[in-house]
Amino acid sequence: LHTFAGAQHACNALFLLSLFACLQEVVPPREAFDLMSRMLDYNPSKRITAEEALAHEWFKMDPKPGPNVFK
Predict the structure, then answer these.
(1) CA distances in angstroms from 37 to 15, 18, 29, 43, 53, listed in the order given
(2) Per-residue model confidence as pLDDT tens digits over 20-43
(3) Positive or negative: CA dihedral 11, 14, 20, 21
(4) Is the pLDDT of residue 47 over 70?
(5) pTM, whole model, 2 decimals?
(6) Alpha-carbon span 44 to 11, nearest angstrom
(7) CA separation, residue 44 to residues 23, 53, 60 (Å)
(8) Can you give the three-state secondary structure of 3-43, one letter per residue?
(9) What residues have CB less than 8 Å from 35, skipping those under 6 apart?
């Protein structure tokens, strides 16, 4: 019984690690979420400007887009 509990614990840990790895691929980084929420602010006086958006930290993160990201 003790061996089974240890194996079950290891299996649960592997499941959580694989789930976390999958979520990293589909959940945007915090910086992307911040930029989008500031761009979509309903109040125009609080909304980020285009110049501020282009200077946002998300555009400085790696991996940076290449010269033509659509090729």
Answers:
(1) 31, 28, 13, 12, 11
(2) 677 666 667 888 889 999 999 999
(3) negative
(4) yes
(5) 0.55
(6) 50
(7) 32, 14, 25
(8) HHHHHHHHHHHHHHHHHHHHHHHHCCCHHHHHHHHHHCCCC
(9) 48, 53, 56, 58
